[in-house]
Write a structure and sequence with these properties.
The protein is 47% helix and 0% strand. It has 70 residues and is mainly α. The chain has a domain of 25 residues.
Length: 70
């Protein structure tokens, strides 16, 4: 049988305590991470679905040319 010393003794580590500077650094890190993630999502979403390319594009004046019987 495996015993868990942490549970049996009731010993646990206290929560992580940060100084004011540490709190600011962690906050700015997550803020930068969120900004980077939103920038990536917005740039990839703005591309949208690829559009179909037409097989042939008529140039200026080309559509008016007609074959004359010769």
């Amino acid at each position: 049988m495996v015993s868990n010393d942490v549970v049996s003794r009731g010993v646990h580590r206290p929560p992580l305590r940060l100084t004011r500077r540490g709190q600011i650094v962690v906050f700015l890190f997550f803020l930068a991470l969120a900004a980077l993630a939103s920038a990536v999502l917005f740039t990839t979403a703005s591309h949208g679905a690829p559009r179909a390319v037409p097989g042939y594009v008529a140039h200026h004046g080309e559509a008016r040319k007609t074959a004359h019987p010769g």
